[in-house]
Write a structure and sequence with these properties.
The protein is α/β, with parallel strands linked by helices. The protein contains five helices and five strands, in the order E-H-E-H-E-H-E-E-H-H. The longest helix is centred in the first third of the chain and has 16 residues.
Length: 118
């Protein structure tokens, strides 16, 4: 399951050695609401290897601004505080998993000791 994150926790979270997937969303966004159960399901499947978090852009506008979020939903991936991938818009579960597999190839340091290591 994904966790809501606050800006006060952000820098320490993305500096971790674990890959982080951050869903930038808002409760008024219909595509965000469609993505929520998909994101939560995928978070369960990859929980051992990837930290899944949600960032409500209405409550955390400074984080949205910092990463240039202009439309939502957007999932950004971070490895050791560096952005290594992005998915814009809604994707069904199988497509989201495929994109995550592609993005993990850009994060070898964060995946070195996980089952996703290629």
């Amino acid at each position: 399951m994904s966790t809501d994150i606050r800006s006060s926790e952000w820098d320490s979270l993305i500096s971790d050695k674990k890959l982080v997937a951050a869903d930038f969303w808002a409760p008024w966004c219909p595509y965000c609401m469609r993505l929520k159960p998909v994101f939560d399901s995928v978070a369960k499947d990859y929980a051992e290897n990837i930290k899944f978090v949600k960032v409500n852009v209405g409550e955390e506008p400074e984080l949205a601004s910092r990463y240039g979020i202009q439309g939502i939903p957007v999932i950004k991936f971070f490895c050791e505080a560096k952005e290594v991938g992005e998915i814009v818009g809604y994707l069904p579960q199988d497509a989201l998993k495929k994109e995550i597999e592609n993005i993990t190839r850009n994060a070898p340091n964060c995946l070195a000791n996980t089952s996703l290591r290629k």
